[in-house]
Write a structure and sequence with these properties.
alpha+beta
Length: about 700
Amino acid sequence: MSLWTKAQQLQGEALRQVQAVYGEHFPIEVRHFLAPWIESKIMSDVDPDNPQHEQYAASVVGALIQELESKAQALTNEEFFLTKIKLQGAAEMFRQRYSQNPLGLLRIIRHCLGTELKLVQQAENMSLGMSSNPAALLPDASGEILQQLDILRQRTQETSEDLRRMEQEQEAFALEYHELTKIQANLTHLQNQAPSQQKNDFEKQLRIKKEMSEHKLNVKVLAELLQMRMALAEKHKETLMLIENLQARVLDDELIRWKREQQLAGNGVPFHSNLDSIQEWCEGLAEIIWLNRQQIKEAERLRAKFPIMQANNTDHVPALNTQITQLLSSLVTSTFIIERQPPQVMKTNTRFTAMVRLLVGGKLNVHMTPPQVTVSIISEQQANTLLKNDKMAKGEASGEILNNTGTMEYQKASRQLSVSFRNMQLRKIKRAEKKGTESVMDEKFSLLFQSKFSVGGGELVFQVWTLSLPVVVIVHGNQEPHAWATVTWDNAFAEPGRTPFVVPEKVPWSQVAETLSTKFRSATGRALTESNQRFLASKAFRNPNLQLPLVGPEAGNLMLTWSQFCKEPLPERNFTFWEWFYALMKLTREHLRAPWMDNTIVGFIGRKQTEDLLKQCLRGTFMLRFSDSELGGVTIAWVGDSSEVFMLQPFTSKDFAIRTLADRVSDLKHLIYLYPDIPKDQAFGKYYTPFTDSQTPTNGYVKPLLVTHVPG
C-alpha cells in the first residue's frame, strides 16, 4: 500500500495536518493524481541542501512537469474539467518558480512526504519501509514555513467568514432597530390622540411589540453582536501574534542568514541562494497581512456605524490596526535588499554594477507606479548616523557616483521587482581624517540605496533604504592587496547586529586559517591542507617553531591580531603576511592553477623542511615551493650530487608570462623526479607547450625559442 493511500485513511486531526501541509505552493491535487510517480522518483537520498544534487533535481522537476501535463491531457471526462485546469496551472507554476530553483521544489515535496510519513507511522506505530532513512524526510525549515503560511491563510479565510456573518448580524440589528423606531413613532402619535378604548387597546399592543423588540435587540446586541465583535478581535489578535512570530523567523533568521551567506561569498564561500524561496514566504506574509488589515479596517467601519460597547470592555481594534500596519511596514522595509552587491574593492573612475530587489513588490502591486531608486556612497560614520536616526541629512554623501538612479521593473515570468545598475562609476571620494597607523585602505564606505513608493492606492507611503556590504575605495592598483585584506577580515569576522562597520581586533587562528583556505580554494580550485595551514600559522605568528594544536580546547586560544595579519612587516622583509599570501594566491590563480589542483606544487613549506625532505631522495628529485623572500615567487628546490640541495631563483608572474612553469621544468634536464619519486614528464607532460621544427614565419621573421638554463 502506497504512502498516499495510507495518508488518506488517517482520521481527525492527523488528516487535517496532512491537508494543511499542501496548498498553493504544492497543490494536493498534484499529490493525489501523481502519487505513485512522486513516491518512486523523489528518492530519500537526495539532499535538497546539497548543490551537487542540483542537476539531478532539475531532471526530476522537468520530468514532474511533463508527467503533470500528460496526466492533465489524459483527463477527458467533464467531471474532471476543473481538476484538469488545476493540474495544468500547477505545471506552469512549477515551471516558472522552480526551473531555476529545482532543489526548492524537492525540498517542499520532501517536507510533504515527511509529514505524511510521520503521521502515518504515529497512527500505525510501525515502520513503512518506504525509506531506509526516515529521518531524511523530517520536515525542514522551508516546509514548516509554508505549512505555517497555509495555517494563516486558513485563519484569514475563517475570520473573513466571521466578519461577513457579523456584518449580516449588524444589518439584521439595523432592520430590527428601524422597526423599533417605527413602533416608537406610532406610540408618540397615539399619545396626541383623544382617549378611547380602541386607542388603549392599540397602544397596549404597540407597547408589547416595543418590549419584545427591545428585548430582541438587547439579546442580539449583548448576546450576539458584541460577542461576535469580541471573538473576531480575539481571533485577529491571535492571528497577528502568529504572523509576527512567522515574520520574525523569515526576516530575522532566514533573510539575515541569506545576507550573511552573501557576505561570506565575498570571501569565496559557496553561496547557494534561496532568495526565490524567501520571496515566496514574504509574498505569502504580505498577502495575509494585507487581507487581515482590510478585515480589521472593515471591523472598525462596522463599529463606527454602531458604536456600542459593553461596560469595562476595551476596544482592541485600533491597537490591532496599528500593530498590523507596523508588521506591514517592517516587512516592506526589510525586504528591500541588494541581490547583487557592488564590488567591495572599488576603484575610482571604473564602471561597476549592482542590483536591488523588493521581495514583496509584485504582491503589493508596487510596480503599478514604478519606484525610482537612487544610489549614494556614505562613510562609516554616516552609516552609523543613518542606523541611529533612520534617515540621512539631505544631500549628505561622501562621493559622487555617475548613473546612480534607476527605475524598478517588474518581470512577470519571475515575479521579481528589481532594478539593475549596469554603468555606475565613482568619480570622487571624500575621505575622513586618518588616525595613527590608519591608511586609506583601512577606511570603509557603503553604498546607500534609497527609494519611496506607495501601496493601496497611495494609502500607505514607504521610505525604504538598504546599505551594501562595506566597500574600500582605491585609486591605484597597488592599493588592491591591502584593500582586500580589509574586506576579507570584515566579511569573515563581522558579527550580527554590529555597529557599522566594527570588527574584532583579534580572532582565533582557526577562523583565520579557514578563511584563508576558503579564499585560496575559490581563487585556485584547491583548498589548503593541514600542513599548509600549519606553515601559514608559523608565518603569521613569526615563529617557525610554533606547535599548533588543530583540535581540542587549546586550538581556539591562539589569537591573531589585525596588525599581525596585514600591518606589521614580516621579519627581515618589507611586506606583511597578507601581502605575501595575496601575491601567492594571485600568482597561483593566474599561472599555476592546473599544477596546484594536481598537487604537483607543495607551495607552503619552509626552506629547512624542504632541504630535510629532499636530502633523503634520489639525485634529481625536486620540489616546488613558494618563496619566502620574493612577493609572488615560486622556486624550484632540487637535490644534486652528494645530497646537496639547491634553490633556483624564484620565478614570478613576469617570468611565467614569457614561459610557463611546466616548460621551464622540462628545460632543466637535471630535474628528474617530482618529490617524492614521480617522473617529471608524468607530472608535467600534459602542460608542456607543443613544439615543431617546421614552424614557418608569418611575418618574415623567425621566432626565437627561449629556454631556461642553469649554468654549471
